[in-house]
Design a protein that fits this description.
The complex is a heterotrimer. Chain A is mainly alpha-helical. Chain A has six helices and no strands. Classes of the chains: A mainly alpha, B mainly alpha, C mainly alpha. Chain A: This is Na+/H+ antiporter subunit.
Chain lengths: 153, 162, 93
């Protein structure tokens, strides 16, 4: 027997609706993963599950446990924060890897995509620069290495 | 105060995380969490993060709600695209958008916003020209997207970070 | 009465999420390319998190929350590491 019986009706109803909505969105995202034709379209699909899908299920869990234990239960918010922070990072890494592989294999890509690749390559440089300590303030407001001279690499 | 509390925001987040994980606000856990929140940021000194200031908390809250609304709306839009039977007539392509935002934290937040919103995807940023490449699932009007990203997000992020 | 509605919708949600996991698994096994497989794995673990949360609601225990959190952490690290491998594994340097 589940402990569901002692729940106030509004909480049970709200939980059901939110759970169904979240699961439906996750399934839709998974369907998109199957239906779309190219990789770059498919990357859009899992974001359905990670944003609103996960949000709905997490709010459902919060409502359910708060009503069940008659005290605010909000620790699900940790998963929400974690997912919203990590999923974009993971997807961006994956897209960069895919672009890189496409370029290595010499697949045909249009001009805009080619531009994205060169941007990707150049973006590696300033990361190393940012780790260095901040440049000392020179009179006249000119800082060495802030874009006035270009790296030959 | 400044010597002990190196990164106040990070310390506050760590304390909040500790209390949420333990699901309590008891004094013992408050003290333990506070001790951890004071000690762990010291390891961050090795990374030497560049200093940045968050300004205008009102704008941050406004940006949060704008992004929340956009995520809900684009979820519905992308779900509709996936569930509608025909896939003809939809073009998805890369779009280049010139940005004025240069603050690395601001750019990171913008990248997370754009990627977390279904239908748009951050692909790369050219730090020499300040051009960002975004992949858009349902590309109808390039200028409309330019207006959304520049007018809606970048303007607020410029207010917050610069 | 209302409890039956809740149990029913939890069951339906579990079935939907199982189908979503099957779709992600199909994409993971089918490919066609390595990045598609990694994307399938990413979707798979996110759906697993949601499924665990619904298990938690069903059993009325918050113990599933920790499992979901651990899967979230490990899944992110996995995707990041695999993306890095796709980048580095092919470089001829």
């Amino acid at each position: 027997m589940t402990p569901v019986t002692g729940l106030p009706p509004w909480a049970a109803l709200l939980t059901s609706v939110l759970v169904l909505l979240g699961a439906g969105l996750a399934l839709t995202g998974s369907l998109g993963l199957l239906r779309f034709n190219s990789f770059y379209e498919r990357v859009h699909a899992p974001t359905l599950a990670t944003t609103l899908g996960a949000g709905c299920v997490l709010i459902a869990s919060m409502v359910f446990f708060s009503a069940l234990q008659t005290r605010p239960v909000v620790h699900e918010i940790l998963i929400a924060i974690f997912l919203t922070l990590t999923t974009p990072v993971a997807l961006m890494l994956l897209v960069r890897a895919a672009l890189f592989r496409d370029r290595i294999e010499g697949q045909a890509y249009d001009e805009v995509k080619a531009r994205a690749l060169s941007a990707d390559k150049r973006a590696l440089l300033p990361h190393h620069r940012a780790i260095r300590p901040a440049p000392i303030d020179l009179p006249g407001g000119h800082h060495p290495g802030d874009g006035h001279e270009h790296d030959p690499r | 105060m400044r010597r002990w509390l190196l990164f106040p925001l990070l310390s506050a987040c760590l304390l909040a995380m500790w209390l949420l994980l333990n699901q309590t606000v008891a004094v013992g856990h408050l003290l333990l969490g506070a001790a951890l929140a004071l000690c762990i940021p010291w390891t961050m000194r090795a990374v030497q993060p560049s200093k940045s200031r968050l300004r205008r908390p009102g704008t941050i809250i406004r940006l949060f709600f704008i992004v929340l609304g956009d995520i809900i709306r684009s979820n519905a839009a992308v779900a509709w695209i996936i569930l509608s039977p025909g896939q003809r007539g939809r073009t998805s392509n890369f779009v280049n958008i010139p940005l004025e935002l240069r603050n690395p934290y601001g750019l990171a937040v913008l990248a997370c916003i754009i990627t977390a919103t279904p239908g748009t995807l951050w692909v790369g940023f050219d730090s020499a020209t300040g051009v960002v490449t975004v992949h858009i699932l349902d590309l109808i009007d390039e200028n409309a997207w330019l207006d959304i990203i520049k007018g809606r997000y970048e303007r607020l992020l410029l207010e917050i970070f610069e | 009465m209302i409890a039956n509605v809740l149990i029913g919708s939890l069951t339906i949600a579990q079935i939907l999420l199982a189908l979503a996991m099957a779709g992600a698994t199909f994409r993971m096994l089918r490919g066609p390319r390595a990045q598609d497989r990694v994307l399938g794995l990413d979707t798979l673990y996110i759906n697993a998190i949601l499924l665990l949360l619904i298990f938690g609601i069903r059993s009325g225990s918050t113990a599933y929350f920790e499992a979901a959190l651990v899967i979230a952490v490990l899944g992110f690290v996995t995707t990041a590491a695999l993306a890095k491998f796709l980048m580095r594994g092919e470089v001829i340097e």
